[in-house]
Write a structure and sequence with these properties.
Layout lengths: L1 E4 L7 H19 L7 E3 L17 E6 L1 H4 L2 H21 L6 E5 L9 H4 L13 H7 L4 H18 L9 H5 L22 H6 L5 H4 L2 E7 L3 H4 L27 H11 L5 E4 L15 E7 L9 H10 L3 E8 L5 H5 L1 H9 L9 E5 L2 H17 L20 H17 L21
Parallel strand pairs: 1-2, 1-3, 3-4, 5-6, 5-7, 7-8, 8-9
Helix pairs in contact: 1-6, 5-6, 11-15
Length: 435
């Protein structure tokens, strides 16, 4: 009858199962325990394609969170189902109310415009505890049960006029309407923005507001990485599916970077990868500010030095180079010294950029926030700044690197205990709800 879609990267599988079962039992109490009244819960394992149930279910229940709107699989599930709804509207002139949503987590949640364009969220509230918080609070039991009953009622009503079924081949042609790689301008009239939102939101800086900000993701696919390392479970069919923080988080690198960028008020963020021939995308022109995130294992690829030279010659302004060396990845930890040495042979200073290392998801988010804040306050030197060629610079030795990192850390500590903006702040731009 219905399918429950949620972001598995939040680690809420248990509470999600409870909510799904509570809604299911409410439906059973009205319709009886029949196969036609049975709902399906999304599998916890990440997948490249939407679950097959999304192609033929009568209604979709969405548990919205910041992780959900940044997850590519969730975006595909949502987009495939809403395309089915659009097809019904084109055929009959009536749009079915087949989509039902709840605000599961409110932390850093900014709903994309395609989501807010459809009125379907039960008990809309973007500053409270969310349904997850209500479920955990024993004093909010009656309110939680009220939401369960309303969700069940909406799902039963939605199932009466289901959208047309879609084939798997057709679903592959559906373009996600949001997700980690979207680059949507978040313009919102100041007169309609609540005063409290302006007081707590991160302000987009003047320097970056007029520039295109890109994440250049230098990572490999699963097939490519098999030739460079033994463990390839962190990789997918595309570079954008790189999940280096498994098993503790299913969040992709583009999702983490996008979340941090929005917390800084960045109005545009694009995700690009080098082309198969090693060339850089055309989007990285003089107007672009680029954050380069690298998987150090790619330094073992013979094509890596040439790629680095292309990045150095790019007209784009490179804000920083961030190497993701996950502490929970045993193979990476065992080879950390060798990987750091390999990265140092293509030093970030050839780009005139800062060099950072992230060992966890939270570290990556904070580094991105700090880098973007620094890039916004850095005087614009023009894209004609003097850049050295790789062969003109001496290779930084391990001893030199230790001294440099010590000085950098000392400088950071002098700026206070918390130099980064809050990652969990609300950001201006995209709608926080209808209206």
């Amino acid at each position: 009858m219905f399918f429950t879609s949620y972001a598995s990267s939040t680690g809420d599988r248990g509470p999600v199962q409870r909510f799904h079962i509570d809604v299911q039992n409410e439906i059973y109490s009205v319709l009886g325990r029949t196969p036609s009244a049975e709902g399906r819960l999304k599998r916890p394992e990440p997948a490249a394609d939407p679950d097959d149930v999304v192609l033929n279910c009568r209604a979709l229940l969405v548990l919205y969170s910041a992780e959900y709107v940044d997850d590519l699989q969730c975006a595909r599930e949502w987009s495939v189902f809403t395309e089915r709804m659009d097809r019904r509207m084109r055929r009959t002139g009536e749009r079915p109310d087949s989509l039902v949503g709840v605000v599961w987590r409110t932390d850093a949640l900014v709903l994309p415009r395609p989501v807010t364009a459809i009125r379907h969220i039960v008990d809309e509230e973007y500053q409270g505890p969310g349904v997850l918080g209500l479920q955990r609070d024993r004093h909010s039991r009656s309110r939680y049960q009220g939401i369960v009953r309303r969700v069940a009622a909406e799902l039963m009503r939605a199932a009466e006029s289901p959208p047309p079924v879609m084939s798997e081949a057709e679903s592959r042609g559906v373009i996600p309407r949001f997700g980690p790689s979207r680059a949507v301008a978040r313009a919102r009239p100041a007169a309609t923005e609540p005063e409290s939102s302006r007081a707590h939101a991160a302000e987009p800086t003047a320097d970056l507001a007029g520039r295109h900000v890109f994440l250049l993701l230098v990572a490999g696919t699963r097939n490519r990485m098999r030739h460079l390392r033994e463990q390839v479970g962190h990789y997918g069919r595309s570079a954008e599916e790189w999940r280096p923080f498994r098993p503790y988080s299913e969040e992709t690198v583009p999702s983490t970077v996008g979340r941090a960028a929005r917390a800084c008020g960045i109005d545009r963020l694009g995700v690009v990868t080098p082309r198969p021939d090693g060339c850089l995308p055309d989007e990285l022109d003089e107007s672009a500010t680029v954050l380069v995130v690298i998987d150090p294992w790619l330094t073992g690829d013979p094509a890596f030095p040439a790629l680095w030279e292309r990045i150095a010659r790019s007209p784009a302004r490179v804000a920083a180079v961030v190497v993701v060396l996950t502490r929970t990845d045993e193979e990476s930890t065992a080879n950390a010294a060798r990987l750091r040495e390999a990265v140092s042979r293509t030093p970030a200073r050839v780009l005139g950029a800062a060099h950072q290392e992230a060992g966890s998801r939270d570290a990556l988010a904070h580094i991105v926030a700090a880098v973007l804040a620094d890039a916004a306050t850095r005087p614009e030197a023009g894209n004609g700044r003097a850049r050295g060629r790789t062969e003109d610079l001496s290779i930084e030795s391990p001893a030199e690197r230790r001294v440099r990192r010590h000085r950098e850390r000392a400088g950071w500590l002098r700026h206070g205990a918390n130099p980064w903006p809050s990652i969990l702040s609300r950001t201006p731009g995209e709608s926080l709800g209808p209206g």
